[in-house]
Amino acid sequence: MSHRRDVLATIGAGGAAVLAGCGLVTSTGSDGTATRRITDGAGRSVEVPGTVGRLVAVGPGALRQVAYLEATDRVVGVEDAEKGWARTVPYNLANPELRDRPVIGAAGPNAGGNSEAIIAQDPDLILFYGDPSRAASLQSQTETPVVVLRVVDFVTADARETMFETWRLVGRILGTEDRAQELVETVRTTIDDLEERVADLPESDRAEAYVGAINYKGAHGLATTRNPFPPFRFVNANNVARGVETDSASVQVSRERLLTWDPPTVFVSTANLRRVREDVGKHPELGRIDALERDRVYSILPHASYHHNYGSILANAYFVGKTLYPDRFGDVSIPTITDDLFETLLGKPLYGELMDVHEAYERLDLAE
Asked: Of the CATH numbers 3.40.50.720, 3.40.50.300, 3.30.160.270, 3.40.50.1980, which one belongs to the domain with range 2-150?
Protein backbone atom coordinates (compact mmCIF):
# COMPACT_ATOMS: atom_id res chain seq x y z
CA MET A 1 0.00 0.00 0.00
CA SER A 2 2.83 2.41 0.80
CA HIS A 3 4.22 2.07 -2.73
CA ARG A 4 0.86 3.11 -4.22
CA ARG A 5 0.67 6.11 -1.88
CA ASP A 6 4.14 7.12 -3.08
CA VAL A 7 2.98 6.83 -6.68
CA LEU A 8 0.03 9.13 -5.98
CA ALA A 9 2.38 11.66 -4.44
CA THR A 10 4.38 11.83 -7.68
CA ILE A 11 1.33 12.69 -9.84
CA GLY A 12 2.06 15.54 -12.17
CA ALA A 13 5.84 14.97 -12.11
CA GLY A 14 5.86 13.72 -15.68
CA GLY A 15 4.67 15.00 -19.07
CA ALA A 16 1.05 15.00 -20.18
CA ALA A 17 -0.66 14.04 -23.41
CA VAL A 18 -4.32 14.20 -24.40
CA LEU A 19 -5.78 10.94 -25.66
CA ALA A 20 -7.70 11.73 -28.84
CA GLY A 21 -11.46 11.31 -28.58
CA CYS A 22 -11.69 10.40 -24.90
CA GLY A 23 -11.01 13.63 -23.00
CA LEU A 24 -8.43 12.03 -20.71
CA VAL A 25 -5.00 13.46 -19.96
CA THR A 26 -2.24 10.93 -19.29
CA SER A 27 0.76 11.63 -17.08
CA THR A 28 3.82 9.65 -16.11
CA GLY A 29 5.12 9.70 -12.57
CA SER A 30 8.80 9.61 -11.66
CA ASP A 31 8.69 5.82 -11.39
CA GLY A 32 7.15 5.45 -14.84
CA THR A 33 3.62 4.69 -13.58
CA ALA A 34 0.91 6.09 -15.85
CA THR A 35 -1.95 8.18 -14.44
CA ARG A 36 -4.80 10.03 -16.07
CA ARG A 37 -6.71 13.19 -15.23
CA ILE A 38 -10.48 13.06 -15.62
CA THR A 39 -13.40 15.35 -14.88
CA ASP A 40 -15.91 13.49 -12.73
CA GLY A 41 -19.68 13.84 -12.45
CA ALA A 42 -19.37 16.71 -9.98
CA GLY A 43 -17.00 18.64 -12.24
CA ARG A 44 -13.99 17.77 -10.08
CA SER A 45 -10.62 17.21 -11.72
CA VAL A 46 -9.29 13.89 -10.43
CA GLU A 47 -6.04 12.05 -11.13
CA VAL A 48 -6.74 8.32 -11.53
CA PRO A 49 -4.40 5.39 -12.12
CA GLY A 50 -3.72 4.35 -15.70
CA THR A 51 -4.82 0.85 -14.72
CA VAL A 52 -7.44 0.17 -12.04
CA GLY A 53 -7.15 -3.32 -10.61
CA ARG A 54 -8.76 -2.75 -7.21
CA LEU A 55 -11.78 -0.57 -6.49
CA VAL A 56 -14.63 0.10 -4.09
CA ALA A 57 -17.99 1.77 -4.73
CA VAL A 58 -19.60 3.99 -2.10
CA GLY A 59 -23.15 5.35 -2.00
CA PRO A 60 -26.52 4.52 -3.62
CA GLY A 61 -26.18 3.08 -7.12
CA ALA A 62 -22.38 3.20 -7.27
CA LEU A 63 -21.77 -0.54 -7.10
CA ARG A 64 -24.59 -1.18 -9.58
CA GLN A 65 -22.69 0.80 -12.22
CA VAL A 66 -19.61 -1.37 -11.64
CA ALA A 67 -21.79 -4.43 -12.20
CA TYR A 68 -23.16 -2.97 -15.43
CA LEU A 69 -19.59 -2.32 -16.61
CA GLU A 70 -18.68 -5.98 -15.88
CA ALA A 71 -15.97 -5.03 -13.39
CA THR A 72 -17.15 -6.69 -10.15
CA ASP A 73 -14.02 -8.87 -10.16
CA ARG A 74 -12.07 -5.72 -9.23
CA VAL A 75 -14.25 -4.88 -6.21
CA VAL A 76 -12.26 -5.42 -3.00
CA GLY A 77 -14.87 -4.22 -0.48
CA VAL A 78 -18.60 -3.53 -0.24
CA GLU A 79 -21.04 -1.67 1.96
CA ASP A 80 -22.74 -3.66 4.70
CA ALA A 81 -26.12 -3.83 2.94
CA GLU A 82 -24.67 -6.07 0.22
CA LYS A 83 -24.54 -8.79 2.87
CA GLY A 84 -28.02 -7.99 4.19
CA TRP A 85 -31.12 -6.38 2.72
CA ALA A 86 -29.47 -5.70 -0.66
CA ARG A 87 -28.64 -9.35 -1.29
CA THR A 88 -31.73 -9.71 -3.50
CA VAL A 89 -31.35 -6.61 -5.68
CA PRO A 90 -30.63 -7.59 -9.28
CA TYR A 91 -26.93 -6.70 -9.43
CA ASN A 92 -26.32 -8.86 -6.34
CA LEU A 93 -28.37 -11.76 -7.66
CA ALA A 94 -26.20 -11.62 -10.78
CA ASN A 95 -22.97 -11.33 -8.75
CA PRO A 96 -23.48 -13.28 -5.50
CA GLU A 97 -19.73 -13.27 -4.83
CA LEU A 98 -20.00 -9.59 -3.85
CA ARG A 99 -21.53 -10.51 -0.51
CA ASP A 100 -18.26 -12.24 0.44
CA ARG A 101 -16.16 -9.07 0.12
CA PRO A 102 -15.00 -7.20 3.25
CA VAL A 103 -17.23 -4.38 4.51
CA ILE A 104 -15.98 -0.84 3.83
CA GLY A 105 -18.82 1.12 5.43
CA ALA A 106 -22.55 1.40 6.03
CA ALA A 107 -25.05 1.78 3.20
CA GLY A 108 -27.76 4.40 3.01
CA PRO A 109 -28.79 7.67 1.33
CA ASN A 110 -25.99 9.48 3.21
CA ALA A 111 -23.40 6.74 2.87
CA GLY A 112 -19.86 8.06 2.94
CA GLY A 113 -17.69 5.03 3.43
CA ASN A 114 -15.47 4.15 6.38
CA SER A 115 -12.05 5.59 5.64
CA GLU A 116 -10.10 3.15 7.80
CA ALA A 117 -11.96 0.14 6.39
CA ILE A 118 -11.38 1.37 2.85
CA ILE A 119 -7.65 1.94 3.44
CA ALA A 120 -7.39 -1.61 4.78
CA GLN A 121 -8.52 -2.94 1.38
CA ASP A 122 -6.02 -0.73 -0.49
CA PRO A 123 -8.17 0.17 -3.53
CA ASP A 124 -6.70 2.01 -6.51
CA LEU A 125 -9.95 3.95 -6.92
CA ILE A 126 -13.17 4.86 -5.12
CA LEU A 127 -16.34 5.37 -7.17
CA PHE A 128 -18.74 7.55 -5.21
CA TYR A 129 -22.35 8.72 -5.34
CA GLY A 130 -23.36 11.40 -2.89
CA ASP A 131 -22.38 14.84 -1.63
CA PRO A 132 -19.27 15.98 -3.54
CA SER A 133 -17.91 17.58 -0.35
CA ARG A 134 -17.86 14.12 1.22
CA ALA A 135 -16.00 12.84 -1.84
CA ALA A 136 -13.28 15.42 -1.31
CA SER A 137 -12.86 14.54 2.37
CA LEU A 138 -12.90 10.81 1.59
CA GLN A 139 -10.16 11.32 -0.96
CA SER A 140 -8.09 13.26 1.55
CA GLN A 141 -8.62 10.73 4.35
CA THR A 142 -7.81 7.67 2.23
CA GLU A 143 -5.23 9.23 -0.12
CA THR A 144 -7.12 7.43 -2.88
CA PRO A 145 -8.71 9.02 -5.97
CA VAL A 146 -12.48 9.46 -5.56
CA VAL A 147 -14.62 9.80 -8.67
CA VAL A 148 -18.12 11.19 -8.20
CA LEU A 149 -20.80 9.56 -10.38
CA ARG A 150 -24.01 11.12 -11.64
CA VAL A 151 -26.78 8.53 -11.29
CA VAL A 152 -30.29 9.56 -12.35
CA ASP A 153 -33.63 8.19 -13.42
CA PHE A 154 -33.63 7.97 -17.23
CA VAL A 155 -37.20 8.94 -17.99
CA THR A 156 -36.19 11.73 -20.40
CA ALA A 157 -33.71 11.80 -23.27
CA ASP A 158 -31.56 14.32 -21.39
CA ALA A 159 -31.48 12.13 -18.29
CA ARG A 160 -30.51 9.13 -20.39
CA GLU A 161 -27.62 11.11 -21.85
CA THR A 162 -26.48 11.82 -18.28
CA MET A 163 -26.41 8.10 -17.52
CA PHE A 164 -24.71 7.33 -20.83
CA GLU A 165 -21.96 9.82 -19.95
CA THR A 166 -21.58 8.19 -16.53
CA TRP A 167 -21.14 4.77 -18.14
CA ARG A 168 -18.70 6.18 -20.69
CA LEU A 169 -16.69 7.86 -17.95
CA VAL A 170 -16.45 4.70 -15.87
CA GLY A 171 -15.73 2.71 -19.03
CA ARG A 172 -12.80 4.98 -19.87
CA ILE A 173 -11.40 4.77 -16.36
CA LEU A 174 -11.72 0.97 -16.19
CA GLY A 175 -10.81 0.26 -19.81
CA THR A 176 -14.29 -1.10 -20.58
CA GLU A 177 -15.33 1.44 -23.21
CA ASP A 178 -16.86 -1.19 -25.49
CA ARG A 179 -19.02 -2.46 -22.64
CA ALA A 180 -20.17 1.08 -21.85
CA GLN A 181 -21.25 1.55 -25.46
CA GLU A 182 -23.08 -1.78 -25.37
CA LEU A 183 -25.08 -0.52 -22.38
CA VAL A 184 -25.91 2.70 -24.21
CA GLU A 185 -27.11 0.84 -27.30
CA THR A 186 -29.15 -1.63 -25.22
CA VAL A 187 -31.07 1.16 -23.49
CA ARG A 188 -31.57 3.12 -26.70
CA THR A 189 -32.77 0.09 -28.66
CA THR A 190 -35.10 -1.05 -25.87
CA ILE A 191 -36.75 2.33 -25.41
CA ASP A 192 -37.03 2.77 -29.18
CA ASP A 193 -38.88 -0.54 -29.36
CA LEU A 194 -41.24 0.43 -26.55
CA GLU A 195 -42.00 3.82 -28.07
CA GLU A 196 -42.43 2.56 -31.63
CA ARG A 197 -45.11 0.11 -30.53
CA VAL A 198 -47.35 2.98 -29.42
CA ALA A 199 -46.07 5.83 -31.60
CA ASP A 200 -49.28 6.08 -33.63
CA LEU A 201 -51.59 5.71 -30.65
CA PRO A 202 -54.15 8.55 -30.70
CA GLU A 203 -54.46 10.60 -27.55
CA SER A 204 -58.04 9.39 -27.20
CA ASP A 205 -56.87 5.77 -27.04
CA ARG A 206 -54.18 6.28 -24.42
CA ALA A 207 -54.87 4.32 -21.25
CA GLU A 208 -54.95 6.02 -17.88
CA ALA A 209 -53.13 4.43 -14.97
CA TYR A 210 -51.66 5.08 -11.54
CA VAL A 211 -48.50 3.72 -9.93
CA GLY A 212 -48.17 3.51 -6.16
CA ALA A 213 -45.94 2.26 -3.37
CA ILE A 214 -42.76 3.36 -5.13
CA ASN A 215 -39.63 3.19 -3.01
CA TYR A 216 -37.76 6.44 -2.45
CA LYS A 217 -35.35 6.61 0.48
CA GLY A 218 -37.46 3.99 2.16
CA ALA A 219 -40.75 2.13 1.86
CA HIS A 220 -44.09 3.77 1.04
CA GLY A 221 -47.75 2.84 0.69
CA LEU A 222 -50.39 3.10 -2.02
CA ALA A 223 -50.66 6.90 -1.86
CA THR A 224 -46.99 7.50 -2.74
CA THR A 225 -46.58 7.89 -6.46
CA ARG A 226 -44.05 9.05 -9.05
CA ASN A 227 -44.41 11.64 -11.77
CA PRO A 228 -43.06 11.27 -14.35
CA PHE A 229 -42.94 7.48 -14.26
CA PRO A 230 -40.68 5.97 -16.98
CA PRO A 231 -42.80 2.92 -17.92
CA PHE A 232 -45.86 5.13 -18.45
CA ARG A 233 -43.83 7.62 -20.47
CA PHE A 234 -42.27 4.93 -22.67
CA VAL A 235 -45.62 3.37 -23.64
CA ASN A 236 -47.76 6.53 -23.92
CA ALA A 237 -49.87 5.83 -20.86
CA ASN A 238 -51.54 8.80 -19.23
CA ASN A 239 -50.41 9.09 -15.62
CA VAL A 240 -53.39 10.22 -13.54
CA ALA A 241 -50.86 12.01 -11.29
CA ARG A 242 -49.45 14.02 -14.19
CA GLY A 243 -50.83 17.25 -12.73
CA VAL A 244 -48.92 16.84 -9.47
CA GLU A 245 -46.08 19.32 -9.28
CA THR A 246 -43.08 18.33 -7.18
CA ASP A 247 -39.31 18.61 -7.18
CA SER A 248 -39.03 15.23 -5.50
CA ALA A 249 -38.75 11.89 -7.28
CA SER A 250 -41.73 10.57 -5.33
CA VAL A 251 -44.70 12.35 -3.85
CA GLN A 252 -47.30 11.56 -1.21
CA VAL A 253 -50.89 12.28 -2.24
CA SER A 254 -54.07 12.25 -0.20
CA ARG A 255 -56.52 9.38 -0.29
CA GLU A 256 -59.16 11.89 -1.34
CA ARG A 257 -57.14 12.84 -4.42
CA LEU A 258 -56.58 9.21 -5.28
CA LEU A 259 -60.32 8.59 -5.06
CA THR A 260 -60.97 11.62 -7.28
CA TRP A 261 -58.55 10.36 -9.91
CA ASP A 262 -60.29 6.97 -9.78
CA PRO A 263 -57.68 5.26 -11.98
CA PRO A 264 -58.95 2.32 -14.07
CA THR A 265 -55.62 0.48 -13.71
CA VAL A 266 -53.14 0.55 -10.84
CA PHE A 267 -49.58 -0.76 -10.65
CA VAL A 268 -47.78 -1.19 -7.33
CA SER A 269 -44.23 -2.12 -6.42
CA THR A 270 -43.72 -5.55 -4.92
CA ALA A 271 -41.32 -3.96 -2.42
CA ASN A 272 -44.31 -2.53 -0.53
CA LEU A 273 -47.18 -4.95 -1.05
CA ARG A 274 -47.64 -5.40 2.68
CA ARG A 275 -48.05 -1.64 3.14
CA VAL A 276 -50.50 -1.46 0.24
CA ARG A 277 -52.64 -4.22 1.70
CA GLU A 278 -52.54 -2.50 5.09
CA ASP A 279 -53.65 0.77 3.46
CA VAL A 280 -56.64 -0.90 1.83
CA GLY A 281 -57.50 -2.75 5.04
CA LYS A 282 -57.39 0.41 7.18
CA HIS A 283 -59.14 2.60 4.63
CA PRO A 284 -61.92 0.57 3.00
CA GLU A 285 -63.02 3.61 0.97
CA LEU A 286 -60.02 2.91 -1.27
CA GLY A 287 -61.90 -0.16 -2.45
CA ARG A 288 -64.16 2.18 -4.41
CA ILE A 289 -61.34 3.03 -6.80
CA ASP A 290 -62.23 1.70 -10.24
CA ALA A 291 -59.10 -0.43 -10.54
CA LEU A 292 -59.75 -2.12 -7.20
CA GLU A 293 -63.43 -2.70 -7.96
CA ARG A 294 -62.59 -4.31 -11.31
CA ASP A 295 -59.51 -6.23 -10.09
CA ARG A 296 -57.13 -4.31 -12.28
CA VAL A 297 -54.28 -3.92 -9.79
CA TYR A 298 -50.94 -5.35 -10.89
CA SER A 299 -47.53 -5.81 -9.32
CA ILE A 300 -44.24 -4.66 -10.81
CA LEU A 301 -40.60 -5.08 -9.83
CA PRO A 302 -39.16 -2.42 -7.50
CA HIS A 303 -38.37 0.74 -9.45
CA ALA A 304 -35.52 1.49 -7.09
CA SER A 305 -33.48 -0.55 -4.64
CA TYR A 306 -30.58 1.56 -3.39
CA HIS A 307 -31.11 3.81 -6.42
CA HIS A 308 -32.62 3.01 -9.82
CA ASN A 309 -32.95 -0.54 -11.12
CA TYR A 310 -32.65 0.13 -14.84
CA GLY A 311 -33.28 -3.47 -15.88
CA SER A 312 -36.41 -3.58 -13.73
CA ILE A 313 -37.62 -0.23 -15.09
CA LEU A 314 -37.38 -1.50 -18.68
CA ALA A 315 -38.96 -4.86 -17.86
CA ASN A 316 -41.75 -3.03 -16.00
CA ALA A 317 -42.36 -0.91 -19.10
CA TYR A 318 -43.00 -4.04 -21.18
CA PHE A 319 -45.36 -5.39 -18.52
CA VAL A 320 -47.22 -2.08 -18.34
CA GLY A 321 -47.44 -1.99 -22.14
CA LYS A 322 -48.67 -5.57 -22.37
CA THR A 323 -51.25 -4.93 -19.64
CA LEU A 324 -52.61 -1.67 -21.08
CA TYR A 325 -52.22 -2.42 -24.81
CA PRO A 326 -52.25 -6.21 -25.25
CA ASP A 327 -52.73 -5.91 -29.02
CA ARG A 328 -49.51 -3.90 -29.39
CA PHE A 329 -47.43 -6.12 -27.13
CA GLY A 330 -48.92 -9.47 -28.12
CA ASP A 331 -45.56 -10.85 -29.22
CA VAL A 332 -43.89 -10.01 -25.91
CA SER A 333 -43.22 -12.75 -23.38
CA ILE A 334 -42.53 -11.06 -20.04
CA PRO A 335 -40.30 -13.90 -18.75
CA THR A 336 -38.30 -13.88 -21.98
CA ILE A 337 -37.90 -10.11 -22.26
CA THR A 338 -36.97 -9.86 -18.58
CA ASP A 339 -34.32 -12.55 -18.97
CA ASP A 340 -32.99 -10.90 -22.11
CA LEU A 341 -32.72 -7.49 -20.47
CA PHE A 342 -30.91 -8.71 -17.38
CA GLU A 343 -28.62 -11.00 -19.33
CA THR A 344 -27.56 -8.00 -21.42
CA LEU A 345 -27.28 -5.55 -18.52
CA LEU A 346 -25.92 -7.83 -15.80
CA GLY A 347 -24.72 -10.93 -17.62
CA LYS A 348 -27.33 -13.30 -16.19
CA PRO A 349 -31.01 -14.07 -16.94
CA LEU A 350 -32.75 -13.27 -13.67
CA TYR A 351 -36.48 -13.73 -14.22
CA GLY A 352 -36.71 -16.94 -12.17
CA GLU A 353 -34.63 -15.60 -9.29
CA LEU A 354 -36.52 -12.32 -9.24
CA MET A 355 -39.87 -14.11 -9.15
CA ASP A 356 -38.61 -16.21 -6.22
CA VAL A 357 -38.13 -12.93 -4.34
CA HIS A 358 -40.95 -10.77 -5.72
CA GLU A 359 -44.66 -11.32 -6.30
CA ALA A 360 -44.27 -9.45 -9.57
CA TYR A 361 -46.13 -9.25 -12.88
CA GLU A 362 -49.34 -10.58 -11.40
CA ARG A 363 -52.91 -9.40 -10.95
CA LEU A 364 -53.32 -8.69 -7.24
CA ASP A 365 -56.14 -9.25 -4.80
CA LEU A 366 -55.53 -6.52 -2.26
CA ALA A 367 -58.09 -8.01 0.10
CA GLU A 368 -55.71 -10.87 0.89
From this structure: 3.40.50.1980
